[in-house]
């Protein structure tokens, strides 16, 4: 049973966390390079929000947006 848990430890520490260890060592030399993945995610989220807001504006201008005052039938 001890070998099983040591195998799990080896998997996580030496294999799955290797990219995170690389980023941790990279941060000492270049903060911007280490946080590149964060900037990529922020750009993706910002572009998705812009797209979503544009789509909301298109549907509102077309008048197809359902503007019901109650969200559920049990609130009537």
Largest sheet: none
Order of helices and strands: HHHH
Give me the number of helical elements.
4
Unreliable runs: none
Broad structural category: mainly alpha
Mean pLDDT: 88
Radius of gyration: 24 Å
Cα-to-Cα separation, first versus last residue: 60 Å
What's the helical proportion of residues? over 70%
Shape: elongated
How many DSSP E strands? 0
InterPro entries: DUF6341
Protein name: Uracil phosphoribosyltransferase
GO molecular function: glycosyltransferase activity
Transmembrane segments: 32-53
Q: What report would you give on this structure?
A:
By secondary structure, this protein is mostly helical. Helix content is 74%, strand content 0%. It has 4 helices and no strands. It has helices at 2-16, 18-27, 31-34, 36-62. It starts with a helix and ends in a 14-residue tail after the last helix.
Outline the fold blueprint.
Elements: H1 2-16, H2 18-27, H3 31-34, H4 36-62
């Amino acid at each position: 049973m001890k070998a099983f848990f040591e195998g799990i430890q080896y998997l996580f520490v030496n294999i799955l966390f290797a990219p995170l260890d690389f980023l941790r060592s990279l941060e000492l030399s270049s903060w911007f390079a280490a946080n590149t993945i964060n900037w990529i995610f922020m750009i993706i989220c910002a572009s998705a929000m812009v797209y979503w807001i544009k789509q909301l504006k298109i549907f509102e201008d077309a008048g197809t947006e359902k503007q019901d005052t109650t969200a559920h039938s049990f609130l009537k």
